[in-house]
Amino acid sequence: MYTTAMSSIMAIAIALTFVVQQSNAVDFHQWCQRTSHNNLCVSVVMADPRNNLKTSPNGICRILTDKAITIANANAARISDLQKKSTGRITGPLRTCSTEYDKMRYDLKGFDFTVLNHENYIPLVANVGGAAGTPGDCEGAFKEFHIPSPLTNANKNLEDILVAVLEIINLNECNKINSCIG
């Protein structure tokens, strides 16, 4: 009788723990829906195998940033390949893109989303915002030389992911996708 009662109590305790954990968990769909790149956000987060990161804005930002790093590495490799094959006016914009991407890739690896709060809000937004500007700067280098960019789609995809990260940080801090500053 004692063993049966203890087993029942243990089963109820385990079930309650699971219910409490589920009620505290964040549905990433709700966060992604509030960004301007909902479908991209959802598809990136869903594709990531780290389910433990999908339950908080911090984890969602980590997943999106890790995807941004993967895309940035692929874009940097493409830029490098283009630099090896290119001559003439396109070399200037490619050099600019290469320099910008090198800095951004380094910066992206250092983003810490362990704690998202008002104390780290401003530096984190500044750093992610700076990284989000890199694809546009790369595109601008091509426009400056009146050359069509071979990286437009890849740059746009990367920028959209980083904008979603910024929006989630803003949603977490001030419940709006635009900056809380000012």
Tell me what the structure shows.
This is Pectinesterase inhibitor domain-containing protein. InterPro entries: Invertase/methylesterase_inhib, Pectinesterase_inhib_dom. By secondary structure, the chain is mostly helical. It has one domain (29-174): Invertase/pectin methylesterase inhibitor family protein (Butyryl-CoA Dehydrogenase, subunit A, domain 3, Up-down Bundle). The protein is 75% helix and 0% strand. It contains seven helices and no strands. It has helices spanning 2-24, 28-33, 38-47, 57-85, 91-109, 118-144, 152-174. The chain is elongated and about 50 Å long.
Instruction: State the helix count.
Output: 7
Gyration radius, in Å: 21 Å
Mean pLDDT: 85
Strand content: under 5%
* Order of SSEs: HHHHHHH
CATH class: Mainly Alpha
In percent, how helical is the residue content? over 70%
The global form is elongated
User: What is the assigned CATH homologous superfamily?
Assistant: Invertase/pectin methylesterase inhibitor family protein
Our count of domains comes out at 1
**Structural class designation:** mainly alpha
Strand element count: 0
CATH topology heading: Butyryl-CoA Dehydrogenase, subunit A, domain 3
Largest sheet data? none
